[in-house]
Specification:
The protein has one helix and 30 strands. By secondary structure, the chain is mainly beta. The strands form seven sheets. Strands 4, 5, 6, 7, 8, 9, 10 and 11 form an eight-stranded antiparallel sheet that branches. The longest helix is centred in the C-terminal third of the chain and has 5 residues.
Length: about 400
């Protein structure tokens, strides 16, 4: 008779779903996420007085941070520092951020006296992908700072978090509105942009670019249509969210009506015009194409002369159509929306600096888990020990 085989040891229970990092300048507040999506009491750390924004890496290994900025006036006075991007990993003990590397994107001017100079450099946007981080910074220059130039910057990120060469491209001075979105799943960039006069009628429009392996941009499409309507000359569409080759942009038309316009493919084929305005959005894209993508949006609408705000959750079909799943009215508009990379959790920061945590059930219903006050700012998620396991 053979001896009885020992029973397999039970797997240790899952006690953490990672960390949620919230920037409350100059502090970073880190919450551990429990397996239900709720947030445990936070740990607060001082990272830098010049930390402007945080962005997560899709695998949850790193957090990217945008630092610096300057302001120089006509006599050379002022202050600030170089614009830099840094990578951080979560400390496995409590999730606090540990700097791994940084790269300089733009140098602060020397500050030598200049009677007519009025130079301001500041970050306006940050996003992070696997193997590359992206940022946009604004340079105001000339007498009284009346000119402006937006510059796209991209920096390579090695597997251990070390930052490599920086690629920069400045957009058209004074006319570019600086509205940018990167789909890190497909290495595509969407932006508001206007063709120069002389090549066409100069109308406002939306551009699509492929992000090449070295971070440079190759434009593949441009349109000034929203379904069958033409954008006005100075209408600057705000690309909000993209998933599986579809992109959704908010467009203000001359008649004062906001529409959410959808497009397909690198050529930006106009698909639909939805009769509501959205100002912030995020997407959750399952690895299986058979599962629909989820889109969460802040939607503004007017009732009785007052503007109301809702968090709305949609599923997106394979044709790019949106189906409403659930909604919740918000007291203030959402400014940041973030899905957990691998769990059905959603985190929302509003204009009043309240942080809301939600779980999304199998039917697409939102369950509000908790609200935290005084928790505004950009947000990022890391997986516990993800960086150490990936090395």
């Amino acid at each position: 008779m053979s001896p009885t085989s020992p029973a397999p040891a039970p797997s240790p229970p899952v006690t953490s779903a990672g960390y949620l990092h919230v920037l409350q300048r100059p502090w970073v507040v880190t919450y551990e996420i429990d397996p239900t999506g709720r947030l445990r009491p936070p740990v607060t750390q001082h990272v830098s007085n010049e930390l402007f924004a945080l962005a997560g890496e899709p695998r949850g290994r790193f957090v990217y941070g945008a630092h610096g900025g300057w302001s120089l006036f006509g006599n050379g006075t002022g202050g600030g520092s170089d614009l830099t991007i840094a990578t951080y990993a979560p400390d496995p003990r409590d999730g606090t951020l540990v700097e791994l590397s940084y790269a300089t994107v733009a140098h602060r001017p020397s500050g030598e006296p200049c009677i007519s100079c009025f130079d301001i450099g500041e970050w306006t946007w940050l996003n992070g992908g696997v193997g590359r981080a992206y940022g946009l910074w604004l340079f105001r220059w000339g007498t009284t700072g009346r000119h402006k130039t937006y510059t796209y910057a991209s920096v390579a990120v090695a597997g251990d978090g070390r930052l490599g060469p920086v690629i920069a491209r400045s957009f058209m001075s004074d006319t570019d509105p600086g509205q940018v979105l990167v789909d890190v799943r497909s290495d595509q960039l969407y932006k508001a942009g206007r063709r120069p006069r002389g090549t066409d009628d100069g109308r406002g429009g939306l551009e699509a670019h492929v992000i090449e392996a070295d971070g440079t941009l190759t434009r593949t499409g441009w349109t000034n249509l929203c379904l069958g309507s033409t954008m006005c000359e100075y209408c600057a569409p705000s690309p909000l969210v993209s998933a599986r080759g579809f992109v959704f942009a908010s467009v203000l038309f001359e008649r004062g009506q906001d529409l959410l316009c959808s497009y397909q493919g690198l050529r930006l084929k106009p698909l639909d015009a939805l009769d509501f305005a959205a100002s912030a959005a995020a997407a959750f894209v399952p690895s299986s194409e058979a599962d629909p993508a989820l889109l969460a949006m802040n939607v503004d609408f007017a009732i009785g002369g007052l503007t109301r705000h809702e968090l709305r959750l949609f599923s997106m079909s394979a044709e790019g159509d949106l189906r409403p799943l659930d909604s919740e009215e918000l007291p203030d508009p959402a400014t940041r929306i973030l899905f957990h990379p691998s769990r059905p959790f959603l985190y929302v920061v509003d204009k009043a600096s309240q942080l809301r945590a939600y779980a999304v059930d199998a039917n697409g219903r939102l369950e509000r888990l908790m609200i935290a006050d005084h928790a505004g700012g950009s947000i990022a998620i890391t997986h516990k020990d993800a960086w150490a396991e990936d090395r």
